[in-house]
From TrEMBL:
Keywords: Oxidoreductase. Belongs to the short-chain dehydrogenases/reductases (SDR) family. GO terms for molecular function: glucose 1-dehydrogenase [NAD(P)+] activity. Its EC number is 1.1.1.47. The keyword Kinase does not apply. It comes from Lichenibacterium ramalinae. Pfam families: adh_short_C2. It comes from the Bacteria. This is Glucose 1-dehydrogenase. InterPro entries: NAD(P)-bd_dom_sf, Sc_DH/Rdtase_CS, SDR_fam. Transmembrane segments: none annotated.
């Protein structure tokens, strides 16, 4: 991504106040894009925007991505502030406690699907409406997970949600390619984020085992995932449509 400029472009990042989302928002800003940091934590989103702001090139927007009305308001605010939407990284996601399927909470299942699956689908729906109306080029990257490609005992609902994100990404990508809107999906492995740190504290043996199984022998860094997202949005990835990019250390 060295030398790639996103001057004059507008990027939207959900879950943008921490972890991979924060790293990606920072990378877009450093590359010259105007950035909308979207997060359920209003104070954190605004603080990130204040840290990145040069003139009016960053805004923080509170949004619960499981709520369609909130997403409509969010997209309208992005368009109203910046005039268009060039890129979207649909990154917002949650975990629920590890559990055998037989013992899993139906409430947890619904909450997780509401954010990870429904939220990603709703964001993509309204981003595409905006991008279709304004015309391309534009790009969307949805965040799945290494768990979207494999099974993982104890994470049945999470695994299901991330598999589904891949499927809906690939279906939409085929529909919108000829409108010059490229849609792809990224499947990170374990990355050094607050979410992973929490899992490490709660399940140290399981998490250490997972890290030991990574061929590189370490967690990923948020900037490594961010660089992949920005590449997928760049002209250099112009032939990437409906593709799965998996930065997982092997």
């Amino acid at each position: 991504m060295m030398g790639t400029s996103f001057e004059g472009k507008v990027a939207l990042v959900t879950g943008g106040a921490s972890g991979i989302g924060l790293g990606t928002a920072m990378a877009f800003a450093e590359a010259g894009a105007s950035v909308a940091i979207v997060d359920v934590d209003a104070e954190a989103a605004e603080q990130v925007a204040a840290d990145l702001r040069i003139g009016d090139k960053a805004i923080g927007i509170v949004c619960d991505v499981s709520q369609e009305a909130a997403i409509e308001v969010m997209i309208a605010k992005v368009a109203g502030t910046f005039g268009r939407l060039s890129f979207a990284f649909n990154n917002a996601g949650i975990h629920v406690p590890v559990s055998d399927t037989a013992d899993a909470s139906t409430q947890d299942f619904g909450r997780l699907m509401g954010v990870n699956l429904r939220g990603t689908w709703l964001c993509m729906k309204h981003e595409l409406r905006r991008m279709r109306a304004q015309g391309g080029p534009a790009a969307i990257v949805n965040c799945s997970s290494q768990n979207g490609l494999t099974g993982n005992p104890g994470l049945g609902a999470y695994v299901a949600s991330k598999h589904a994100v891949i499927g809906m990404t690939r279906a939409a990508a085929l529909k919108y390619a000829r409108k010059d809107i490229r849609i792809n999906v990224i499947c990170p492995g374990a990355v050094d984020t607050p979410m992973v740190a929490k899992a490490m504290a709660e399940h140290p043996d399981d998490m250490q085992g997972a890290i030991d199984n990574i061929p590189l022998g370490r967690l990923g860094r948020v900037e490594e995932i961010a660089s992949a997202v920005l590449w997928l949005c760049s002209p250099g990835a112009g032939m990437m449509v409906g593709q799965i990019v998996t930065p997982d250390g092997g």
